[in-house]
Amino acid sequence: MPASHFTPELFAFLDDLERNNEREWFRSNKGRYEEHLKQPALRFIEDFGGLLYDISPHFRAVPKATGGSLFRIYRDTRFSKDKTPYKTHLGVHFRHEQGKGAHAPGFYLHIEPGAVACGFGLWTPPNPVLRRIRDRIVEDPAAWVAARTRATGATGRLYAAGALKRVPRGYDKDHPLAEELKLKSFAAMRSLPDSAVIEDGFIEHFAHLCDQAAPMMRLLCGAVGVPY
C-alpha cells in the first residue's frame, strides 16, 4: 500500500471549488479532481477492502465511481434552494452487504477542509428499525454506553441532527439516556485534523477507528437483523 493515498492538493482543490462552485470552473479543473480526489479515493477504497474484511466480512469496499463506495461530487439540486452544482467535500461510504442505500449500517469517511470526520452507524433508518435500536438501549443501557463510548472516543460525538424534541412515545422521559432515545440517527462521528489524511499510514489509522466502532456496529446490525 502507498504510504499516503492523498496529498495536500486534495484540500487545495476543495478550497478552490468552495470559491468557484460553478460548472465552467469545474470543467476547466476536472483534471485536478481526477488526479487528486477521484483516483486516489478509488485506490484508497480498493486498498481498504482487506482491512475492512478483517473488521467485518459483511461490509463492502467497492472501488467504483458510480454505484460503489465513492459518493459522486455532483449535488442533487432538484429540491434544494442551494443550486451550487458540486459538493465541496469527498465522501466514501462502506456499506453493509445487505444495504442498498445510506439507510443501512456503514462506515463513512468525510474529507472537507477543516471538517475531516469518520462516521460509523446508521443514518436516518426507518421507524421500525429506530424502535428496535431504542429497545436495545433500554434493555441493556450499559452495553450501549460502552459501545458508543468506544466508537466516539475522546474526539467524537453522536450525530444529533434531526433529533426529536421529546422522548418518543412508549419510553420513559426520565430515562438516563433520554437524549439518545430522541435520536433519529445512531451514528458516531470522530473528528480528525486535516493533516491526518495526508500522513503516512492514514488508511491503517482509519481502519483502527472503524475497529473501535465494532461493538456499536454489531449492536446496530443486530437491531436491523443483519449479520456483523
Characterization of this structure:
- This protein is α+β, with helices and mostly antiparallel strands and 228 residues long.
- The protein has nine helices and five strands.
- A five-stranded antiparallel sheet has the order 1-2-3-5-4.
- α3 (30-55) packs across α8 (202-212).
- The longest helix has 26 residues, at 30-55.
How does the helix and strand content classify structurally? Answer: alpha+beta
Low-confidence stretches: none
Q: Please provide the count of β strands.
A: 5
Dominant shape: globular
* Level-1 CATH class name: Alpha Beta
* Structural Rg: 18 Å
If classified by CATH, what would the architecture be? 2-Layer Sandwich
CATH superfamily: Protein of unknown function DUF1054
How does the major sheet shape up? 5 strands, antiparallel
Mean pLDDT over the full residue set: 94
How many individual helices?
Answer: 9
Strand order of the largest sheet: 1-2-3-5-4
Terminal-residue CA separation: 26 Å
Q: Could you name the key traits of this structure?
A:
228 residues; alpha+beta; BirA Bifunctional Protein, domain 2; five-stranded antiparallel β-sheet
What's the SSE blueprint?
Layout: H1 8-19, H2 23-28, H3 30-55, E1 90-95, E2 106-111, E3 116-122, H4 127-139, H5 141-152, E4 156-158, H6 178-181, E5 186-192, H7 194-198, H8 202-212, H9 214-224
Antiparallel strand pairs: 1-2, 2-3, 3-5, 4-5
Helix pairs in contact: 3-8, 4-5, 4-9, 5-9
